[in-house]
Amino acid sequence: MKLLTEIKARFKPALEALLEGANAAEIDALLSMVRPTQDDKFGDYQVNCAMALAKKLGSAPRDIATALVEQVKLDDLCEKVELAGPGFINLTIKDMWLKGALSKVIADTNLAVEQVADPRTVVIDLSSPNVAKPMHVGHIRSTVIGDALAKIHRFIGHKVITDNHLGDWGTQFGMIIYGYKHFVDEQAYQQNPVQELSRLYKYVRVIVDYHGAAKALPEAQELKQKQLGALEKIQAQDHTDDKAKLKKVKKDIQRLKEKIALQDELIVGFTKTLNSDAEIQAVAAQHPTIANDVLVETAKLHEGDKENRELWDKFLPHCLDDIQRIYDRLNIEFDYVLGESFYQDKLASIVEELTNKEIATESDGAMCVFLDGFEAPMIIRKKGGAFLYSTTDLATIRHRVEEWKADTMLYVVDHRQGDHFDKLFAASEKWGYTDVELTHVSYGTVMGDDGKPFKTRAGDTVGLEGLIDEAESRALAVAKEQNPNLEEDRQKEIGRVVGLGALKYADLSQNRNSDYKFSYDKMLALKGNTATYLQYANARVHGILRKLDTDVEKLRSSTDDIIFSEAVERQLAMQLLRFDETINEVLAEYRPNLLCNYLFDLAQLFARFFDQCSVRDAASSEIQLSRLQLCGLTSRTLTCGLELLGIESLERI
Ligand code: ARG
After folding, report:
1. For the segment 142-158, what is each residue's pLDDT rounded down to a tens digit?
2. Is the confidence at residue 558, as pLDDT, over 80?
3. What average pLDDT does the structure give for the chain?
4. Same-domain check for residues 81 and 176
5. Which range marks the domain in which residue 208 is found?
6. Is residue 347 assigned to a domain?
7. Is residue 423 assigned to a domain?
8. If you measure from the C-alpha of residue 626 to the centroid of ligand 1, how many angstroms do you get, rounded to a whole number?
């Protein structure tokens, strides 16, 4: 029951008539100017396209708006159609129409959300951590955004395939293989393989970094000297009378000072690494070629070396168990977990095919796909013969199109990989995959309170498991405070549902394109746009229904009229009707935060409704029934919306 779609459908023929010969995209662009109003003194919906049309048609916007209103049939739908300002058309929907629509939503198990007419096969590439290192805070975004997009696409009838494209073949395995061969504590490995592998990974990383710092320190110092020299030279010119020149000189000085500060920071960092504890210094001295040796171990694995392959086979199941534990806690499942290793035997033939088709050409011994509009080519085979991340991704596209008949692929991946995906999509188009829609659903970084990427005090990345633990225990503390008399098991369950919900929602409620600041306090706040607020609001509605002994199922089958005795009842009804519209908006831009905003607005409106409209002491039994209907539908909408975001609801908190 999309009210917005209905209004657009009514305006469409009139716009087409007005703009004879216009293409569908132009008409759609004009129709996108039909929007809910921000303030109900302007009615419920506003049509703003007259201003955009004025230039094109060479007439006054108000005249165009008048002509549109004359042509569009609105009398059965609108109570009032008003022209305002330069040419806005304000529509107030008829109460009768709203009530009829609302009855349909109430009666429908799916909240009358329309199913798509042309279901697509949508593959969602999500989570995709590099295994063998513990999952960290950065992985939550791809996992929860991807999961929500999967659920929402499924909800409106698309065929969805979720695929966790694990990084299970990269250089991190070279590191742990090297670490295992040289530094393993066998007993620790027996006791907890993943913990030991993760220690080995970090240990090797530290030594590699030590050598990196040893090499980089003198370079940085030399560069700093050069910059200081340049600064001195420019400062000598800082006395000119020429204003324009002076401005430039000042700017250059500023810029150089910034560069020097950056170099200083690097020098401090390198020095710190080099002055690390004596053990690291000693081990580093014993392993002078470690950086290269790690690459050799990776290359050997890729070339099928028996020993390394056996080690990989030995490590991988432990790594997978480890991440599975987290997915279980997050309550997230995948249709497929096809990691990078799955595609390895397909890469050689793909490079060969691309070479034969002259899509890939040799450059400096490497095989490259040169693409219009990109400075650097996409390399698909390195000089020494190694394949790359890009090569695997090409193979993945082929697999998903040929085996799964994918129409759309959504890559929910960090924004820093934007360039990789731009090239990948351009290359696959060149390869002939022109019918499949490829989209990088990118997202920003999780920041700490200090506005820098979220790290522990010691400077490590924040582990995902610790984050879940912390969120749950803080939610448990809130639950205990709110309900000191509840049994402990119930309190724990509330802690789990509320903590996890808060964690997911903190992420989902942000515009995915921006970085966001992580804060336990904010995400578990009982007020404000949080899952906690929504879950408590939902439980409150359930409480009302319980108190009045309402059978929600029975309520659904009764299609008695809704009564608008107070303005807020109509506002709540209008918001409830916009669920369907919201789902569409979320999918148009792959932005789950729009659903969060919608649910937050709904919960707030409900709070106002509940404040102003007594359900228990309603003036008549008809009004009481109508209010119960609004309560029932609010709760169903909140539950459904949260579920689409991968968040559980509780009837009692
Ligand atoms: N494993 C990669 C990383 O952690 C992300 C993979 C994303 N998916 C893809 N098909 N490239 O950076």
Report:
1. 999 999 999 999 999 99
2. no
3. 92
4. no
5. 172-303
6. no
7. no
8. 50
Using a 6 Å CB cutoff, which residues line ligand 1?
125, 128-130, 165, 167, 393, 396, 411, 413
Which region among 63-77, 148-162, 196-210, 234-248 has the lowest average model confidence (pLDDT)? 234-248
Residue-by-residue DSSP string for 524-583: T-SSSSSHHHHHHHHHHHHHHHHHTT--HHHHHH--PPP---SHHHHHHHHHHHTHHHHH
C-alpha 431 to ligand 1 mean position (Å): 21
Give domain status of residue 116, yes or no.
no
Which of 413, 414, 423, 424 gets mutated to test ligand 1 (max ligand atoms within 8 A of its CB)? 413
Choosing from 235, 268, 303, the residue where a domain stops is: 303
Statement: residue 456 has pLDDT above 70: no
The ligand 1 atom nearest the CA atom of 167:
1
Q: Give the mean pLDDT of 28-38.
A: 90
Structure tokens at 296: 């050799």
Residue bearing the CA closest to ligand 1, atom 5: 128
- Residue matched to tokens 């009707």: 577
Do residues 223 and 81 share a domain?
Answer: no
Query: How large is the average pLDDT for residues 137-142?
Result: 88
Burial of 634 (0-12, 13-18, 19+ CB in 10 A): buried
Using the atom order of ligand 1, give the atom closest to the CA of residue 166: 1
What would the pLDDT profile of 331-348 be if each residue is shown by its tens digit? Answer: 999 999 999 999 999 999
How far does residue 396's CA lie from ligand 1's centre (Å)?
11
- CA-CA distance, 438 to 625, in Å (whole number)? 49
**Which residue has a Cα nearest atom 6 of ligand 1?**
128
If asked whether residues 65 and 177 sit together in one domain, one would say no
Q: Are residues 88 and 180 in the same domain?
A: no
